[in-house]
Write a structure and sequence with these properties.
The protein has helices spanning 30-46, 72-91, 110-121, 123-126, 140-145, 153-160, 164-175, 210-221, 225-230, 235-250, 256-263, 267-281; strands at 13-19, 49-56, 60-67, 103-107. With 282 residues, it is α+β, with helices and mostly antiparallel strands. The chain folds into two domains: 13-184, Alpha-Beta Plaits (2-Layer Sandwich); 210-281, no CATH class. A four-stranded antiparallel β-sheet has the order 2-3-1-4, with helices on both faces. Strand 2 (49-56) and strand 3 (60-67) form a beta hairpin. The longest helix is centred in the first third of the chain and has 20 residues, at 72-91. Mean pLDDT is 85; it is low at 187-206. One of its GO terms (molecular function) is ATP binding. One of its GO terms (biological process) is DNA transposition. InterPro entries: DnaA_C (IPR013159), Transposase_17 (IPR002686), Transposase_17_sf (IPR036515), Trp_repressor/repl_initiator (IPR010921). Residues 209-277 form the Chromosomal replication initiator DnaA C-terminal domain. This is Transposase IS200-like domain-containing protein.
């Protein structure tokens, strides 16, 4: 049976898990992990994506990735094949080092994204590694320093608060909440890929749909719906789009990740638009 393609749309967020073949180690030393991180950086430039969290354990990898124009499969193919070549050459190994196809779990909920980040950063704790959260090969340290050029910490911080110090405190509280339970995680992964986006005409937490809200914002601002959805640059249109984003989130019509896919923009752009209107409202 041929493999089904994975879901792909601009702004889709995935929890990626790549394990060693037969649970064998894929990293034999720190230099191997450093090389893998360099590959993530290399392919981030080639196929732009956003990385929100990672951890490199000896026999597996966890990544929290948001894709843009290029599908996840292209990114992971480049990273995994390049690392396999490196590993085989260095250790005179033949064949696959990764366990068949990586798993990719689609994340379409803001709170679940935070849960996944917590789960990923707590992997060393669950493994009984002595330095736990301070494990060197995890993106947790990037959130503490805020100066990492591989991980987009601003996106998660902005989800928590527009005030950086408050966001950092909230992040630390989240990370101190203990281990993520299996019941909090999605079991399995999405295996269908089309260019179709999720259906946003269903009511989520509100009594109006996202399409109805778009119509309301269009009437209030005098900007046509198509222009709110597609045009860029003009201040009035940017304001209308940001107002739509802010209203959808505040009214519980859609999450930030759902808005990113609906509008065809990145998650950081959604967060930025929301924050701009929120600051204007104060």
């Amino acid at each position: 049976m041929p493999r089904a393609q994975r879901v792909h749309f601009f702004g889709a967020v995935y929890h990626v898990i790549a394990r060693g073949n037969n649970q064998e180690d894929i990293f034999k030393g720190q230099s191997d992990k450093r090389y893998y991180l360099n590959l993530l950086q290399k392919y981030k430039k080639k196929y732009p994506y956003s990385l929100y969290a990672y951890v490199l354990m000896d026999n597996h990898v966890h990544l929290l990735i948001s894709v843009m124009e290029d599908p996840l499969s292209k990114i992971m193919q480049g990273v995994q094949q390049s690392y396999t070549q490196y590993f085989n050459n260095r250790y005179s190994h033949l064949g696959h080092i990764f366990q068949q196809r990586y798993k990719a779990i689609l994340c379409n909920n803001d709170s679940y994204l935070i849960t996944l980040m917590r789960y990923i950063h707590q992997n060393p704790v669950r493994a009984g590694i002595s330095n736990g959260l301070d494990y060197h090969w995890s993106s947790h340290k990037a959130y503490l320093r805020g100066d990492d050029n591989l991980v987009e910490t601003d996106f998660v911080f902005n989800m928590l608060s527009s005030d950086r110090e408050v966001a950092l405190q909230q992040y630390l509280e989240i990370m101190s909440n203990g281990d993520v339970q299996k019941s909090e995680l999605v079991d399995g992964y999405i295996t269908y890929e089309t260019d179709q986006k999720p259906n946003h005409n269903t009511t989520i937490m509100s009594n109006i749909t996202i399409s109805q809200l778009l119509d309301t914002v269009a009437q209030e601002t005098g900007i046509e719906q198509d222009r709110i959805l597609s045009e860029k640059g003009k201040r009035a249109i940017v304001y209308a789009r940001n107002l739509f984003i802010y209203s959808a989130i505040k009214k519980g019509v859609a999450t930030k990740t759902e808005l990113a896919s609906f509008l065809g923009i990145s998650l950081p752009s959604v967060i930025k638009g929301y924050n701009l209107i929120q600051q204007h409202q104060k």
